[in-house]
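Sequence, please.
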C-alpha cells in the first residue's frame, strides 16, 4: 500500500493520549492545512475501574505481566477505537477522510536508556476504525540514543512559540514537563519531576475520589518546609537535561519512605503541591530571567497550583493557561500526537534532539495501515 501525502494538503488527523494520571483517554480531531492546525472536535473517556487497576498493577509490577499486558493492550485499543468512532459520529466526519490516528498508548514502564513500554495494539485499532494508525512513538528516539520523552516540544514550538518573548510551556499531567521556546536559539525541554501523580495518590489514600479538586485540600494545609527540602533532595531534581521520569520513580512508595507519619495529612498534600511548583519553577528560572509561562494538562485546572506557580515565579513571569493561546489545556497533548502522526505520514522528524538527547531527528512511530 503506497500512501502519498503533500505537506500543504488540508488533512484530518485524530490524536489520542492517555497519560500517567490514569484519568482516561483524550481523543481529538484536528484539521491541518499548511501551517494552520484547527481543533474540530474532542472527546474524553473515563477508564473503567478494572482497566485502571490493571494499568496500575502493571506500572508497579505484578504476576504474569506478559499475559496481563497483552490483554490490557487489546482492551485499551478497543476503548481507543470506541472513542474514535464516537468522535466521528459527533463531528460528522467520515473515517475515509482521516489520514491517520496518532495514538500514544498507555505508558506502564519507562526506563531509559533500556526500554519503554506503551500499551496499545495498533492492528486492533486500525481494524476497528478502518483508519491508518501511527503508534509506538518513543521507541525510535530511544533507539537513536534519546530518552524517548518528552515528545511534545516540537508541537509546542509549532503552536506556541512567540517572536517577541521567551515562552515556557508547562505540561502538568501525572509527571510535569517543560518546553523552553526562546525568541531565538534552540528549543529545550525535559521532565521536571512529579506533576499530579503524588498529589493524586495521597488524596486517593485518604479520600473518596481520584484528585484534589482545585487544590482545595492542599489549600487547607500548611507546607512542611523540612519535608519539602527532603523531597527536593532527591537526585532526579539535580540531574542535567536530557532527562525523563515516570511512576517507576515518583509514586506513593517513594513518598512513604520519608518521615511523614507525624505530619498532618493536609500538610503533606500542601507540601506535595509545593514540590510540584518548586521543581517546575527552579528549572524555569534557570532557563530564562523572564517569560510567558503557558500551562496545559490536567494541572492547569488546579487553581491552587497555578497560584503557587505565579507566586514562586514572581513578577518577571506571566502565567496563563494555554486557552489564552487558543488551545484548551486538556487537549494539547492529544493534538500533539495527531500532529506527530502527520509528521510520520510525511516522512518528517518529530523529535527535538536537544530535548531528548537523540543523535538526530527521526521519523517517530510505527504505521499500521487500515
Amino acid at each position: 500500500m503506497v500512501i502519498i501525502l503533500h505537506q500543504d494538503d488540508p488533512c484530518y488527523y485524530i490524536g489520542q493520549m492517555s497519560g500517567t494520571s490514569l484519568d482516561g483517554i483524550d481523543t481529538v480531531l484536528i484539521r491541518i492545512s499548511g501551517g494552520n492546525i484547527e481543533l474540530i472536535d474532542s472527546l474524553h473517556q473515563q477508564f473503567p475501574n478494572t482497566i485502571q487497576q490493571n494499568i496500575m498493577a502493571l506500572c508497579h509490577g505484578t504476576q504474569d505481566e506478559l499475559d496481563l499486558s497483552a490483554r490490557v493492550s487489546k482492551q485499551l485499543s478497543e476503548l481507543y477505537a470506541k472513542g474514535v468512532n464516537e468522535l466521528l459520529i459527533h463531528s460528522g466526519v467520515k473515517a475515509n477522510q482521516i489520514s491517520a490516528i496518532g495514538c500514544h498508548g498507555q505508558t506502564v514502564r519507562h526506563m531509559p536508556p533500556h526500554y519503554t513500554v506503551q500499551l496499545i495494539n495498533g492492528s486492533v485499532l486500525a481494524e476497528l476504525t478502518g483508519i491508518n494508525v501511527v503508534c509506538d512513538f518513543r521507541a525510535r528516539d530511544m533507539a537513536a540514543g534519546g530518552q524517548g520523552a518528552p515528545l511534545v516540544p516540537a508541537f509546542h514550538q509549532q503552536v506556541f512559540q512567540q517572536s517577541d518573548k521567551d515562552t515556557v510551556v508547562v505540561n502538568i499531567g501525572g509527571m510535569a514537563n517543560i518546553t523552553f521556546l526562546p525568541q531565538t536559539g534552540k528549543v529545550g525541554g525535559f521532565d521536571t519531576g512529579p506533576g499530579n501523580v503524588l498529589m493524586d495518590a495521597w488524596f486517593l489514600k485518604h479520600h473518596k475520589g481520584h484528585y484534589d479538586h482545585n487544590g482545595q485540600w492542599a489549600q487547607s494545609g500548611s507546607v512542611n518546609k523540612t519535608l519539602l527540602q527532603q523531597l527536593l533532595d532527591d537526585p532526579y531534581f539535580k540531574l542535567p537535561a536530557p532527562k525523563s521520569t515516570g511512576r517507576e520513580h515518583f509514586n506513593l512508595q517513594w513518598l512513604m519512605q520519608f518521615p511523614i507519619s507525624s505530619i498532618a495529612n493536609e500538610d503533606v498534600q500542601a507540601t506535595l503541591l509545593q514540590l510540584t511548583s518548586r521543581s517546575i519553577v527552579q528549572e524555569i528560572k534557570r532557563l530564562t530571567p523572564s517569560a510567558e509561562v503557558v500551562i496545559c494538562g490536567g494541572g492547569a485546572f488546579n487553581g491552587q497550583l497555578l497560584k503557587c506557580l505565579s507566586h514562586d515565579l514572581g513578577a518577571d513571569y506571566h502565567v496563563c493557561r494555554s486557552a489564552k493561546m487558543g488551545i484548551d489545556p486538556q487537549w494539547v497533548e492529544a493534538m500533539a500526537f495527531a500532529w506527530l502522526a502527520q509528521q510520520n505520514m510525511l516522512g518528517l522528524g518529530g523529535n527535538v534532539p536537544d530535548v531528548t538527547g537523540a543523535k538526530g531527528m527521526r521519523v517517530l512511530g510505527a504505521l499500521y495501515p487500515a
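Residues 220 and 243 are 33 Å apart (CA to CA).
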